[in-house]
Amino acid sequence: MSAPEPAAVRGSAQAPDGPPGSPGGAAAADDRNPSDATDRDRAATAADTPDTPARSRPTTADSERHLPQPADGYSQFSFRQIAALTKYSVNTPLRVIAHIDLDAFYAQCESNRLGLPPETPLACQQWDGLIAINYAARAYGITRHERVPEAKRKCPELVLAHVATWREGDEVWQYRPDPDIRTDKVSLDPYRRTSRAIFAVLHDECERVQYAGLDEAYLDLSRLVHARLETRPELAPYFAGTADPDDPLPRPATAVEWSGVVEPADEDAPLDWADVCVALGAEIVAGIRARIRRDLRCTSSAGIAPNRVLAKLCSARHKPNDQTVLRLAAVERFLRSVRFSKIGGLGGKLGEDVAARLDVPEEGSIPHLLEQSLPRLTAQLGDETARWLYDVVRGRDLSEVVERPAEKSMLSAKSFRPAITTPEQATRWLRIFVADIIGRLPELRAGADRRPTKLTLAYRTATAGRSKIAAVPTVRPEALAETLNGVAAGVLRTLLAEDAVLPCIHMSLAVGGLEDAGRNAAIGDFFVPRKRAAEPDPAELCDECGRPVPEAEKAEHADWHFARTLQRQLADDGPRPAPRPPRPPPSPGRRKPKLEKGQRRLFG
Questions:
Q1: N or C: which end of the chain has fewer CB within 10 A?
Q2: How many Å apart are CA 382 and CA 343, to the nearest integer?
Q3: Tell me, what's the pLDDT at 406?
Q4: Per-residue 3-state assignment (H helix, E strand, C coil) for 513-524
Q5: pLDDT above 70 covers what percent of the chain?
Q6: How far, rounded to the nearest angstrom, does the alpha carbon of residue 35 sit from its chain's CA centroid?
């Protein structure tokens, strides 16, 4: 039993005239998001309460499912949907998700370190390339990964700030006047420290925060919004328990103030509780961003929307230093203006495959995809990918904002140009790797008492590669660096005796099996407890295949690609098997975090 789509709203924040008392007699609104299309047969088999666990992906059908049309003066939403905000339910259409993204984060960190105003053009330099550009420099047409001479031609007054580096004998990274790719290793620790301070603010302001990179995070604001709704007089009977929570609510009786740029809807519509919720969320985010700017001198942009996918798209809409608010009634119009490759998971090989199979045009890509029926998508992409794509281009997303699990490993690595050729060089680099890891161990996300139980040394030459694992004994904190150096040196000697390790073009050292030290006082004294979780280094996704690769297996995985490429080059030309349907990106709960900006080049 479906009903017409709720009317769209434009930008008005004025509440309509309507009865201030509690409603009665009208049909109860469904407690699921009106943008989440599920056929009625499937809906009948699922629990309708807001605390029902959500499936990893919504199921859909060609026949859309909508909320009932409310009577005049009443809302299309019920108090049960408001109550679901306290449980962070993904099924309530009133949920509010924010995505906060720091503006040109690395460049901001360097501008602050150097005491420069944001109007000064600045770029973060790594060797002879650029890995981050502030907005003042972008105005000159300078882009990331541009070479220094070319950038200087475009903007002679450009300030170049080379990233910090490690060098043999260092106990801490340093900013150097003479960084050298042959002797130094890049350090991201200055940016990690600022990132940890930013995440401390986020965790202090919101209890549900998901790390999405050093410079971005998702926040589920639903419970905070619910707390602010308690002050609304129209809802007093419901909070007091004297009104039926399944009856349609009265429409909001007072206006709301928008914080940020509000995306327009197609048609005028009365103010409703979804608008009130997202406006309250925008107010909260504006306060968080103001605190980050005041305390840490960093500007940020944000998107506030009903789900993660939409919030991420909105945060990039009006950069820098602004926020975009997406009302439920504006979702369809907003998405029609977005290129489909901007949706998370569709910017890489999956997006290319979808575009090729469905003849997706550059302009009007989402309207084109909206015209595709679910059966056609299934025939081209397979059932799982088709259903995911069908939903996501309609703005439907049931993914939760979740904390990342405690990390199990930590890596330090270096690509050598030119290759190292002596055991002494390899030993010196291992000591640098150990110093890097030791400096970061106390600041692991889990906060306290973490210890490595194994060590993996991996190397790669021009033609081969290998890794070897060794156990790390439990020692007192002050002996940990010496112990790791000793274990790494022993593994290196074994590899040198067994393999042709040199000349070496890439080497990495990883510590793994990080576990709680429990009551072990010897190791427990080493780790400094943190009030807030420090954010870990992102794991890497393979540039070739996009698969997550454990840190200790990067060398082997790269060699596998090398062998596959060589095999293809040697193979005779001939008919190839039909490609398999593409798979959708992993669900957010299992997704590997994105690479830090510039990280693909940070092993150089």
A1: N
A2: 19
A3: 75
A4: CCEECCCCHHHH
A5: 72
A6: 23
**Number of structural domains found in the chain:** 4
Contact 598, 126 (CB under 8 A): yes
Amino acid at the residue 428: R
Residue 137 makes CB contacts below 8 A (sequence gap 6+) with 107, 121, 122, 123, 151, 155, 158
Listed as ranges, residues in the chain with pLDDT below 70 are 1-72, 266-267, 269, 442-449, 515-583, 586-604
Closest CA to 26 of 51, 3, 49: 3
CATH label of the domain that carries residue 124 = 3.40.1170.60
What is the extent of the structural domain holding 288?
40-96+221-336
**Rounded Cα distance, 86 and 228, in Å:** 12
Query: For position 168, what pLDDT does the model report?
Result: 80
| pLDDT for 579 | 53
Q: Identify the pLDDT of residue 12.
A: 39
How many whole angstroms separate alpha carbon 39 and alpha carbon 372?
A: 18
Helical ranges in 24-156 per DSSP H = 40-44, 79-83, 105-114, 135-138, 148-154
Q: Using CA of residue 72, residue 77, residue 79, residue 85, what is the dihedral sign?
A: negative
Nearest to 304 by CA among 401, 194, 204, 195: 401
Residue positions counted in the chain: 604
Whether 112 and 45 map to the same domain: the answer is no
CATH code, 476: 3.30.1490.100
pTM of the full predicted structure? 0.75
Same domain, 92 and 230: yes
